[in-house]
Amino acid sequence: MKIAIIRKKYTFHGGAEGFSSSFIENLANDGHEIHIFAIKWQSETAHKNIHFHKVPALTFLSFLRDFTFAVSSYFMLRKERENFDIIQTHDKTLYQDIYRAGDGCHIEWLSQRWKRTGPAGKISIILNPYHWLILLLERAIFRGHRYKKIIAISEMVKKNIAENYGIPSSEIDVIYNGVDLDKYTPQNREVYRSEIRKKHRLSDKDFVVLFVGSGFERKGVPYLIEAVQSLPEQVSLLIVGKGKHPPVSPLAKGGTKGGSIGRNQNILFCGPQKEIQKYYAAADIFVFPTMYEPFGNVHLEALASGLPVITTKNSGASEIIKDGEHGFVVNKPETVEAIAGKIKSLMQDREAREAMGRNARSLAEEFTFEKHIGKIKKLYESIINE
């Protein structure tokens, strides 16, 4: 098949972009001809079946970037419609056969944020033109029926789309993401655990909590820091990713230099990391107290690495994580005491923690890229046959 994939850009530290890259490479390895339409795409590997098409866009403001990308890609894809069997977008664009809602439902994210912010935050939401643009694009896709099929990456996202835009459930397929089980594996601990811990001046005896993600506010970093600070036990928290540091003083800035916050807790902002599998190997547990997350590839990466996962019901990944078996699911990110309690229980009960880690790996093995690609191909074939 000749498949066009639309995604604004690729960055190594972006979960959605990283998934798109792996997804594309898997399709190309399967013999399909893939054409990427993006502003910027810098894959580390060249592939004879992957072809890049630059989409012109004004990139100096996020509002202009997304608007001009949506408009430019519309005209480019409409013009080249005859050249492709399937056109699939991973962004909010205006011309596609399949809209993959990998970023979830923006109106639902704003709703969750609205509940948790004060008057100044609400005014910021209302006055931000970027939100209005994304809502306009989202409405154009769903209400304008600019798709043949929608892929939701969790039942939560499917429900969000159906409830907010009145889309029939028959038009939405839930297809969970896949994970690279060779890259993310418990065996990495033997290879990388000491390396990363030494890099951040941590001993083998330190209890290490890991967070991975960009966009700290949405993904609950302030709540995680508060939870860790409330613990009387010594904990080290590694925060990997890109985002605005939460308003906690003093902050442990500078990544490898480290720092101490609150009750003698070691909280390290490590920045984006290319070899993220090494950080999973260095950790004891993974915590992701998000306000809103469609699914989050980091959940699968942590599970595949053999880490118990603590997340919230506001994440699509909570649908596959059984509370007390693969980790814990708390109701809301602001329930800081509950998050702290789960961290403490895993810290104190090594046997339970290791059992959950084994269960986590077994769960991740159900979400291979092979299964994911198989479901995608089946969807492609059904659309082509129609």
Summarize the structure in words.
Helices cover 41% and strands 16% of the residues. With 386 residues, the protein is an alpha/beta fold. It folds into two domains: 2-178 and 368-385, Glycogen Phosphorylase B (Rossmann fold, 3-Layer(aba) Sandwich); 188-364, Glycogen Phosphorylase B (Rossmann fold, 3-Layer(aba) Sandwich). Helix 10 packs across helix 12 (350-364). The protein is globular, with a radius of gyration of 21 Å. 43% of the residues are buried.
Précis, in short:
The chain is of the alpha/beta class and 386 residues long.
Which properties best describe this structure?
alpha/beta; Rossmann fold; seven-stranded mixed β-sheet; 14 strands; seven-stranded parallel β-sheet; 386 residues
Q: Please state the overall shape, judged from the principal axes of the Cα atoms.
A: globular
> Ends: how far apart?
15 Å
Q: In percent, how helical is the residue content?
A: 40-55%
Beta-strand residue percentage = 15-25%
Low-confidence stretches: 248-262
CATH superfamily of the largest domain: Glycogen Phosphorylase B
Q: Compute the average pLDDT.
A: 91
CATH class category label of the largest domain: Alpha Beta
CATH architecture descriptor name of the largest domain: 3-Layer(aba) Sandwich
Widest sheet, order of strands? 3-2-1-4-5-6-7
User: Major beta sheet, specifics?
Assistant: 7 strands, parallel
- Contiguous helical run count: 13
What structural category arises from helix and sheet content? alpha/beta
Q: If you consult CATH, what is the topology of the largest domain? A: Rossmann fold
Run of helices and strands? EHEEHEEHHHEHEHEHEEEHEHEEHHH
Tally of individual domains = 2
Number of strands: 14
Radius of gyration: 21 Å
